[in-house]
Amino acid sequence: MARALVTGNYAAGYTLSLAGESNREAMGCAVGAYPITPQTEIIETVAAYKFSKGRMVAVESEHSAMAVCIGASLAGARAFTASSSNGLAYMVENVYMAGFYRLPIVMIAVNRTLGPPWNIWTDQSDSLMLRDTGWIQLYAAAHQDLVDAILLAFRIAEDHRVLLPVLVSMDGFLVSHTSGVVELPELEQVERYLPNLDLPHRLRHEHPVTVGGMTFPHETEHHRKGMIDAMDRVPEVLREAIEEFEPVFGRRPRGAMAADFTEDAETVLIACNTMSRTLKNVIRERRKRGEKIGMIETRMFRPLIEDELRAAIGPAKRVGILDRNISPGSGGVFWREITSALQGHSDVLVQDYLVGLGGGDVTPAIINEIIDDLVTRKRAVAPIWKEVAA
Amino acid sequence: MSTVAETAHKPEHDCLLRPGSTNCAGCGMSLGLQWLDEALGENRPVMVIPACCGIVTAGKFPTTAYGVPTVAATFAAAAAVGTGVSVVQELNGDDHPVVCWAGDGGTYDIGLATISAAAERNENIIFFCYDNEIYGNTGGQRSSATPAGVRTTTTPFGKVETKKDIMSIMAAHRVPYAATLSLAHRDDFMRKLATARRTRGFRFLLMLSPCPTGWKSEPTQSVELVDYAVRSGLFPVYEVFGGTHYRINVRRDGTPVEEFTQRQRRYRGVDVDLDIVRAQIEQRWQFLETMERAFPVAEDRR
Prior knowledge:
The complex is a heterodimer of chains A (390) and B (302).
Chain A: E1 2-7, H1 8-21, E2 29-33, H2 40-47, E3 54-58, H3 62-74, E4 78-83, H4 85-100, E5 106-111, H5 125-129, E6 136-139, H6 143-158, E7 166-171, E8 179-184, H7 187-193, E9 210-211, H8 217-249, E10 257-260, E11 267-272, H9 274-288, E12 293-298, E13 300-302, H10 306-313, E14 318-323, H11 333-342, E15 349-355, H12 364-375, E16 384-386
Parallel strand pairs in A: 2-3, 2-4, 4-5, 5-7, 6-7, 11-12, 11-14, 14-15, 15-16
Antiparallel strand pairs in A: 1-8, 6-13, 10-12
Chain B: H1 4-7, H2 28-40, E1 46-49, H3 53-56, E2 70-72, H4 78-91, E3 98-103, H5 104-109, H6 112-120, E4 126-131, H7 166-172, E5 177-181, H8 186-198, E6 203-208, H9 212-215, H10 222-231, E7 237-241, E8 245-250, H11 258-261, H12 274-294
Parallel strand pairs in B: 1-2, 1-3, 3-4, 4-6, 5-6
Antiparallel strand pairs in B: 5-7, 7-8
Helix pairs in contact in B: 2-8, 4-6
């Protein structure tokens, strides 16, 4: 294990490469890659890796990047890629195909605001657009979380109880282009942790099948039900993947969510990605002043483990959600989802705050303003817009 | 006395196109797939088929008319999905041919960027376009492969624009091998598939594929129609090696182009100026013959 100061993009590219290399005794690995800011350094890192049995194909579009991953995965190889923003939007049709074909592809989404107008900074409008594609979604708030999430991603995706692709997201620039101290894994460790990929439905001449032929409504219902069942098994498989992580890498990766100070909290804030780190600092300060306040960092959005979320919220009276995304005509995506999860279980007040859209800095001062509003709030109102950028 | 088991024909492998496909009667694809099967012999292909009649051919899950591993790709993505399969096969020393099987929509139109990129990278795949000059699967809309003058559901008064010259586009990519295939010239068809099989890298095959449903023609006349298209010079049968060296395989014989057009109701009810069509044929042949003279293929090259 090497301790290194690296960018988020490098950490992702390095970890992906080792995951690919570790499948060399099976069918190898393949990558379809297309550049887009702020993820480009990831595919550049992968391109520089000398695979024993692997190839990166520099294609002409994101649509084809995912298509190459689909073909490679169906042929039995470990396949992965990375993209951002409009690149993910262009890729969507094949993102669905990867999900619906139950292919254990891993993709890094470096969160970037969707254009137009053109904006390269972070928000989650891109990865949340992929909400219904049948992909598991993990979010990494920091560099080490990112490395660990990628390793967990392959492990979960390729488990025969799951067989679903995984999207691992991080904030553009705030993680992708900043450097952090990370325990980078060794190839030998990755090989121990990730078994050789064995895709049960890979293409075989001895048993020729037509993948993706026509089905009628009844078969389609069963196909979708199979995906729901697979999603339902993710929490169990994730728990096992975490348990088996520690003996190999010597540290414990974080799970679907991380709750802090929630045991006695009357007010709970929920946030994702780097906003959760700023939030944590603010909450620490306010707890020193005796405020009964806690937080939850959401690290897995699909599947959303609702019972774990409800347990984490506990007896709180108020919940505030920081959404760095927006569904026009509705509100924050996390807010809608979490409100639904609480429906019928709790009459806790849930207030949405739309903050940091388009990548504006969400500073401790902004978060303090939000908390000041929330702790005195008697009833929830429509999502509150917090304009943060000057 | 021999038993049934001894005399019955027992193929070495499952056929590529099994009985029971959903293809219309007279569909050029049905014959094309069988000839592809025969030409590849023991080299069983992996088929990658985008959204088109070719994937509907399989029929409804859980049955399939395809007797080889087959992947349905998204409409634009056959050449990229095929790339992924081919890359992994090469990494694992597997030399089964990867055949992308697409209609003109998935080749000339929505798939063009993907094909261009795969050709530029010289991926080891055979891209086979069955060109019925129409979006047949959706009921017969114009594509950029539809010839001028043809009536389709989106050109009810006749298409104005000329058919796109996809062969020249592929040749401009300097692909190792590109050829047009005629269902009326079986020996030439089989020889070209053998050449394609032997060649490494990106291979492009273009087959004129009659569509009685869209062309409003008699299913029994499909092969005859192709023959008229070839003999009149409307569909030149030729091959291009390395994108530069041309060989015309079947000469036109002066058959009037009306023999082709008059047997299809898609040409009726519109004012097709056959003089313009004839002029286009002349221009096309002048180009091909000039190329053949300037950059001939070595005679012994098969």
